[in-house]
């Protein structure tokens, strides 16, 4: 896991501050250029470039403590939960066929990706198994390290899977929609004016939800907990408000920056090797999600773009941001990504010991 921790011990705070300034500037530039999901992609690309080229203005590589990311991520959970309405319980029954198809799709894609990468002869079987898991980045890296996989290559494969999906999916939607998605900060959930009571309720959903989610060790608990608490509060009619767009935009910068710093210190030759393998696997999984979306959209009763987003192998938080941007079936997408993580981790745990 050392590749995912850019600061050992106490962070160098001037470097941390400059890193976020670079991320924010990259987000604003991406917004000016009308790129999709600009605050997330712009911050990721700008900080990633600074990290990759060993920028050290204060004698340190770019730093973004993961604890800061953990503080902001519940904002996305609260925003996703804000889409919940009383009729959501009835709609959830309609997702069963789609979830059943996902239950077959994930292990099939994982197996095909595993076979494809091992066939190249450039990676061992253990690293290929854990590196092609279409979900559960932290969990699969940890299990792969314990199993004796090449931890550096495994970490890069999983990280690049996430990065490629975050880049390709918004660009795909930009082509389909005819304009950049998420250009207004990434939140398109209809909300009402926010009073003191609404602020208190949403803050409680974020703090208590994250604490409960992590305590119960739920998959992506720091975002799932706030989703559940916020959804319950909205279904119960306690509030109809959602986090403001500026806060969601700031959260995108924090998330993008935290992803970009992970390039710091990585050997460039190994990054290129991992990128080639990740592109192969990404073409398979993202292309498979797109093809399947058009095949089953009518069967599951959801638009093809919602099915594509639900089956894409990206992060729950990042795919949730795209769903928020497009004001599509946010909870449908979220439910599928939660199941994707569970399936991916379970598949690896079941078959990893057999190698």
From TrEMBL:
**Keyword Transmembrane recorded:** yes
Which keywords annotate this record? Membrane, Transmembrane, Transmembrane helix
| GO biological process assignments | regulation of gene expression
Tell me which GO cellular component terms the UniProt record holds: membrane
Q: Note whether Transmembrane helix occurs among the keywords.
A: yes
The source's domain of life comes to: Bacteria
Q: Which InterPro entries match?
A: AbrB_fam
Q: What transmembrane ranges does the database entry give?
A: 12-30, 36-55, 67-84, 96-117, 159-176, 196-216, 223-239, 245-265, 277-300, 306-333
Q: Which Pfam families match?
A: AbrB
The cross-references to PANTHER family, in alphabetical order and at most eight, read:
REGULATOR ABRB-RELATED (PTHR38457)
What name appears for this protein in its UniProt entry?
A: Ammonia monooxygenase
Specify the species: Albidovulum denitrificans
- Upper taxonomic classification of the species? Bacteria, Pseudomonadati, Pseudomonadota, Alphaproteobacteria, Rhodobacterales
């Amino acid at each position: 896991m050392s590749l995912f921790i850019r600061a050992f011990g106490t962070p160098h705070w001037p470097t941390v501050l400059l890193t976020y300034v670079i991320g924010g500037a990259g987000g604003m530039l991406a917004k000016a250029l009308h790129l999709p999901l600009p605050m997330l992609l712009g911050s990721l690309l700008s900080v990633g470039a600074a990290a990759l080229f060993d920028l050290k203005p204060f004698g340190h590589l770019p730093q973004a403590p993961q604890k800061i990311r953990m503080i902001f991520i519940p904002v996305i959970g609260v925003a996703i939960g804000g889409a919940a309405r009383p009729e959501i319980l009835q709609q959830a029954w309609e997702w069963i066929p789609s979830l059943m198809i996902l239950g077959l799709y994930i292990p099939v894609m994982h197996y095909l990706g595993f076979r494809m990468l091992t066939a190249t002869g450039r990676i061992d079987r253990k690293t290929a198994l854990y590196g092609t898991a279409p979900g559960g980045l932290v969990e699969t890296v940890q299990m792969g390290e314990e199993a004796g996989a090449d931890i550096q290559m495994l970490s890069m494969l999983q990280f690049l899977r996430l990065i490629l999906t975050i880049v390709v999916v918004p660009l795909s939607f930009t082509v389909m929609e005819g304009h950049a998605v998420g250009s207004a900060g990434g939140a398109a959930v209809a909300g009402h004016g926010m009073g003191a009571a609404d602020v208190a309720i949403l803050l409680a959903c974020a703090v208590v939800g994250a604490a409960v989610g992590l305590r119960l060790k739920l998959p992506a608990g720091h975002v799932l907990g706030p989703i559940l608490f916020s959804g319950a509060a909205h279904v119960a009619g306690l509030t109809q408000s959602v986090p403001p767009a500026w806060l969601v935009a700031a959260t995108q910068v924090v998330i993008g920056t935290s992803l970009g710093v992970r390039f710091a210190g990585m050997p460039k030759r190994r990054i290129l090797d991992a990128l080639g393998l990740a592109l192969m696997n990404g073409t398979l999984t993202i292309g498979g999600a797109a093809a399947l979306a058009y095949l089953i959209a009518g069967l599951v009763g959801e638009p093809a773009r919602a099915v594509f987003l639900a089956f894409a192998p990206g992060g729950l938080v990042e795919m949730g941001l795209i769903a928020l941007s497009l004001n599509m079936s946010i909870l449908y997408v979220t439910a599928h990504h939660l199941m994707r993580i569970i399936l991916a981790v379970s598949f690896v745990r079941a078959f990893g010991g057999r190698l």
